[in-house]
Amino acid sequence: MKLKCYNFFLILFSALTIVACKSDDSDDGIADFKAENRKGLGTSAEDLLSNDLYSKVTVELVYSTNFAPLQQTIDGLQDYLSTRLNKSTINIVRTVIDQPTGAPFDPDEIKEIEEENRTLYTTEDEIVVYVFFANGNKDTDTETNFTLGTSYFNTSIVIYEKTLQDLEASGNGDLAVLEGTTIQHEFGHLFGLVNIQNDDIHPSDHEDPNASRHCVVEDCLMYFESSTPGRLARLETMVNIPTLDALCIADLQAKGGK
Ligand SMILES: [Zn+2]
Ligand SMILES: [Zn+2]
Questions:
Q1: How far does the signal peptide extend, from start to end residue (predicted)?
Q2: What range does the domain containing 73 cover?
Q3: 215 CA distance to ligand 2 centroid (A)?
């Protein structure tokens, strides 16, 4: 009996020591207050959609001068989030930063920019999403193949704002539609679409066999046209931001969304 008690305290003590060491240890480069925002893509879908853990959501829009999103995009995002998320409060805040150097950006540089410029992180009752409007293109872009936005970690998005502005300038689409579509599509990935964590309720019905993690329904916000000529034609002719189809909405509702 005595031995058992001793073991219990030893185990408890070890656990406390490990916790204490972890909070002192900054060798991994991730401060504790950032840990909640350094998880895998799609793993916070339920936390974003439902009211279970967090009653509030805040979106921090980060950009440098000349790369701010349009007010129309921000209003559209507010509507989209209000329609889909079960939250009492949805805040969208802006953080203007000095123009980052080093464009075009590779994924590591995008993460470094976040490290340096993101000011808001998830707290006890509020989950926070970071969106950076980049002043440059993605490093892998070519004349015929380009990336408009990417979601990474569980609450991070980059919108290649310069690429969107260039597309509009060359007659390949309307900036408001390009911005709105890109940001709402990337949020869809944070919400786990399509089947990112292999837990959607009916993935075989709508995950596109030709574009994984995207929706097979052509009118859906989560559709991805993989051929460049097809994408350009689609962007050029788009007059409205596509909405989510019934199957994608059902997936969000299964995780506590509206
Ligand atoms: Zn996508
Ligand atoms: Zn869909």
A1: 1-20
A2: 32-254
A3: 4
